[in-house]
Amino acid sequence: MADLVRKLGERIRVLRKEKGLSQEQLGELSGLHTNYIGQVERGEKNLTIESLEKVAIGLGVSLEQVFRYIDPMEQQDELSQINELLSKRPFEDRAMALKIIKDVFEWEHRKYR
């Protein structure tokens, strides 16, 4: 259980930083104390369902988005491996990777015209 609490805290930290929010700002938006947000992000506090919902609302994301990538299914194929790698990167890195992939596909399409 402690591993899940830690992973959830890390995911909340990633989402908060992607939104450009400080812990104080997320605390205000979610109606939770700043110290509590910090403890959650460090995996020191186990969130209740109600607090998790408040955090999701404060982040402007769904609960599904909060849990996405926390415990991915068995990684077998290449697409799953790419997803796993990108899930741990900041938004800017994911956007850059998507642009690179699109550019490669566009180049490939033009090559065979």
UniProtKB/TrEMBL annotation:
One of its GO terms (molecular function) is DNA-binding transcription factor activity. Keywords: DNA-binding, Transcription, Transcription regulation. It comes from the Bacteria. One of its GO terms (cellular component) is cytosol. This is Helix-turn-helix domain-containing protein.
